[in-house]
């Protein structure tokens, strides 16, 4: 899938991995709607984008993925401004084992909520052009992080949702591919604030740090390049792409 002129929506676009995904999609010719609840960071990124790419390639929309109303409005504005939606990157996420219901609401329910509302614009069954959805899960969507059981559960949920939606799309004819991105540890605010967010599992902070030291840390641009692969390679549907500092590979699941 060539990206020239394609229209992308990225959630959690203002910082971290979402910011890098946004920059990579822009560099490859897409127009991007940046959805985030951090208005200060979102507007600042827009200023940079406008200087680099000129006006009209990107649009910042203040949107909390917990709000159906705000998501609907953001998708409508994107479709009106750019002329549809071809690519969705469900990337917004938090790690907080204290406010664990919020973690579920953003990381898992948020992905489902944005996906269903975006499909109204993207699915060929409802007048869309088809396209591709990439969900940022995590390697914790494949294996357990002992210090973050709820975060782990949400990411396993995202991988399962992505694979089931890929099958539903193929069988029903949405014309939309679905893939999950599963990075190991990435240098962002989420990782640097980790120790204060573990709640009742704070005693496991040290063993988690040992795991981080052992696995190493990715930079956001490596992760964004993997998103580009999942977006552009039209053979990929229902995949979970594992991304490590030393390389990447597609997860093989047991066939049932
Ligand atoms: N940093 C890491 O080591 C890894 C992160 N991930 C996942 O990558 C995704 C992005 O995380 P990072 O860039 O590391 O985090 P980050 O904290 O650097 O950035 C997250 C962005 O999402 C936005 N956001 C948070 N809640 C939101 C909401 N309710 N609605 C809209 N926007 C919201 C924030 O304002 C921020 O701009 C998350 O889903 C995370 O679970 C996956 C694997 C590793
Ligand atoms: C705890 C920080 C979480 C940062 C964000 C994230 O999603 C990173 C995940 C990276 C890798 C974890 C994946 C699987 C766990 C593999 C082995 C688990 C060993 C058990 C343990 O000590 O936790």
Features:
single chain, 256 residues, alpha/beta, Rossmann fold, eight-stranded mixed beta sheet, 8 helices, 46% helix, globular, binds 1,4-dihydronicotinamide adenine dinucleotide, binds the ligand CCCCCC(=O)/C=C/C=C\C/C=C\C/C=C\CCCC(=O)O, SDR_fam, 15-hydroxyprostaglandin dehydrogenase [NAD(+)], 15-hydroxyprostaglandin dehydrogenase (NAD+) activity
What does this structure look like?
The chain has 256 residues and is of the alpha/beta class. It has one domain: NAD(P)-binding Rossmann-like Domain (Rossmann fold, 3-Layer(aba) Sandwich). It is 46% helix and 17% strand. It has helices at 16-27, 39-53, 68-82, 100-122, 149-172, 189-192, 205-215, 220-232; strands spanning 7-11, 31-36, 58-62, 87-90, 131-136, 176-183, 240-244, 247-250. It has an 8-stranded mixed beta sheet with strand order 3-2-1-4-5-6-7-8, with helices on both faces. β4, α4 (100-122) and β5 form a beta-alpha-beta unit. α1 packs across α8 and α3 (68-82) packs parallel to α4. The longest helix is centred in the middle third of the chain and has 24 residues, at 149-172. The chain is globular, with a radius of gyration of 17 Å. The mean pLDDT is 98. Ligand LZSIJSXV binds next to α6 and α7. This is 15-hydroxyprostaglandin dehydrogenase [NAD(+)]. Keywords: Fatty acid metabolism, Lipid metabolism, Oxidoreductase, Prostaglandin metabolism. Pfam families: adh_short.
Instruction: Write the CATH homologous superfamily.
Output: NAD(P)-binding Rossmann-like Domain
CATH-defined architecture: 3-Layer(aba) Sandwich
The assigned structural class equals alpha/beta
Ranges where pLDDT stays below 50 over 5 or more residues in a row are none
The total tally of domains equals 1
Shape summary: globular
Number of helices, where a helix is a run of at least 4 consecutive DSSP H or I residues: 8
Per DSSP, what share of the residues sits in E-state strands of 2 or more residues? 15-25%
> What can be said about the biggest beta sheet?
8 strands, mixed
Q: The CATH topology, please?
A: Rossmann fold
EC number: 1.1.1.141, 1.1.1.232
Organism: Lates calcarifer
InterPro entries: NAD(P)-bd_dom_sf, Sc_DH/Rdtase_CS, SDR_fam
Enzyme class: oxidoreductase
